[in-house]
Structures are given as C-alpha cells and as structure tokens.
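quick q for whoever's on today - can somebody do inverse folding on this one?? i tried earlier but teh output was garbage lol. tokens:
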C-alpha cells in the first residue's frame, strides 16, 4: 500500500545519504549499475556523440525527461555508444531489462518507480533494454511515464521503429544503428574468419556478405564458429551450397538466401 511504499522510499533515501551507494537490491535481478569510473574504463578510446552529449546537457536544465531511442540490432555497438556518452557526461550508467522485469510477476509499476528513483540517486543515464518485447501497450507506456522528471537522459534500445504518445515526453530522438553495408560486412567477415585461422577466398567472402546481413557483433562473436571451414575455399558452382550454418544454407553469391 501507499504507506509501505513511503517507508521503502524513505529507507532507501536514508541508506543512500548514509553512504550506501550500491544498487538497490530490489532492482538487482534485472538491472546493473556501472559507476562513472567503470564507464570510463569500458569506453576508453570510443568517441562519444557530441550532439547527443550537448542535447543531454541542455535537457538537464529542464523538467521533462529526454528519451533517445537507439534503434538497431547490434546491441554491443549501442551499449558501447551509451558508455562513451556516459563518460562524456561524467555519469554513471544504469542498465535495466524492462522486458524481463515486466514478466517477473510482481508490481511492475513499483519496480519502475524504484528504477527511476535509483537513476536520480546515482546520477545515472538510464539504459532500457527489452522494451520491444513488452507486448502490452499500456505496460510500455507505463515505462515512459515512470521516467525521471528532472530532465535526465534515458536511452531505450530496440530494433523496430517506435513512437511514444506519453504526455511527459517532449519528443523522442531516434538514433539509427544500421546493419553494415555490403563492403563493411565483407570486411568484418574476413577479419572474423582470419582470427579463427581461416583464409576464405574472394567468392566465399562475397557470398557471406550478400547472404548473411548480420550486425558487426553477430559476425564477430558467434557466427564464424558455426561455419564448416572446408566449404569456404571451394569453388562456388551456382547449384551447390557455399557454406552451411545451423538453420541456414546459402546457394551461391548472387542467389536468395
């Protein structure tokens, strides 16, 4: 009830003021806190988006939250960009999987309230994952209504185009993280396979870039392990598969895959 909630809020505020700066234990199952020092270390050498940093500083002087939508499939690239932005702003980073939290079976609205308050306490950029996986529109909107109301920056990560009708959001800034183009995919495939001791020929690289339109992290991290190396350097007759992947077969560099 409201009295119990007030006690929880007062208790958390008191412990924070007394120097307990670790993440609220009620959030720990679906959220991770990185302080400014950790953020700076993990984003070292990565350029920050100067325009977004300026926008966040400007929004910090207002009373409406700033919501930025990082749209794209490459979660690793989006997280790296977020860490670099947090470093530029000398902020902590609070990463939360709201999709999983919404299915936890508890009071999702209360969890969101705790999350929003924690972002304020920690002076943290809030990075929300899993928003696309919340099927219920009302639940998605509840995430936005729970955003900190002090002009704080929140980044929502997703893959599909998304717009908000939430009254407290002045505007959603969308930053697209596109799948790399053909030349870039070819280069990333070549690098990833060479790191695994493979030397694919030109036609095989062409086919990989054409058939598998994966993100950089998908190519670099997992996909090359699934390929059968003996197929990569064979000639590529149009009627025979170039390579096998779990669940995928590609039939030549110019065909549909």
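ok took a stab at it. sequence:
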């Amino acid at each position: 009830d409201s009295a119990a909630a007030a006690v929880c809020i007062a208790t958390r505020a008191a412990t924070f003021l007394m120097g307990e700066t670790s993440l609220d234990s009620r959030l720990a199952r679906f959220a991770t806190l990185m302080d400014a020092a950790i953020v700076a270390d993990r984003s070292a050498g990565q350029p920050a988006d100067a325009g977004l940093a300026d926008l966040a500083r400007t929004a910090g002087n207002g009373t409406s939250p700033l919501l930025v939508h990082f749209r794209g499939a490459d979660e690793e690239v989006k997280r790296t960009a977020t860490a670099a932005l947090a470093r530029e702003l000398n902020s902590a980073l609070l990463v939360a999987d709201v999709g999983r939290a919404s299915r936890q079976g508890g009071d999702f609205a209360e969890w969101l309230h705790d999350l929003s308050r924690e972002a304020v306490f920690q002076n943290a950029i809030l990075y929300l994952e899993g928003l696309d996986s919340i099927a219920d529109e009302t639940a998605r909107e509840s995430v936005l209504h729970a955003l900190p109301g002090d002009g704080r920056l929140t980044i929502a990560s997703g893959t599909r185009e998304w717009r908000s009708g939430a009254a407290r959001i002045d505007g959603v800034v969308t930053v697209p993280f596109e799948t790399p183009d053909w030349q870039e995919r070819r280069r990333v495939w070549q690098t990833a396979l060479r790191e695994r001791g493979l030397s694919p020929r030109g036609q095989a690289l062409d086919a990989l870039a054409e058939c598998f339109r994966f993100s950089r992290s998908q190519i670099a991290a997992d996909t090359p392990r699934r390929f059968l190396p003996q197929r990569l350097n064979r000639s590529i007759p149009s009627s025979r598969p170039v390579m096998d992947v779990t669940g995928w077969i590609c039939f030549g560099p110019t065909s549909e895959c």
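fwiw Residues 2-17 form the longest helix (16 residues). also The longest strand covers residues 66-71. so keep that in mind when u check it
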